[in-house]
Design a protein that fits this description.
87 residues; mainly alpha; 2 strands; 71% helix; 5% strand
Length: 87
């Protein structure tokens, strides 16, 4: 099956959204942990920043990433006319 230009545009936008969100995920998961010792002086609500990010912040960011991805893909699906139909 040959892909049309419309399919290619949809796929490129999908990959761009996914790539950006994966970059955010990577930073929250690995970069913050890597520099955790350097950030011990920063505190949030009396807890060291790395502890806060590991215990609360990262989980919140993950939930926001999933919600934002669903929102963006729903918008993209409507834009290209490939949204799911209600039955």
């Amino acid at each position: 099956m040959q892909l049309t230009e419309k399919h290619r545009q949809y796929w490129r936008k999908n990959l761009k959204i996914t790539g950006i969100l994966l970059l955010v995920w990577f930073v929250v998961t690995f970069v913050v942990g890597w520099f955790a010792r350097d950030m011990q002086s920063v505190t949030i609500l009396g807890f060291p920043f790395p502890f806060f990010m590991g215990a609360q912040g990262a989980l919140l960011v993950y939930v926001l990433l999933v919600g934002y991805y669903a929102y963006c893909m729903s918008k993209l699906d409507r834009e290209y006319g490939v949204q799911e139909r209600d039955q």
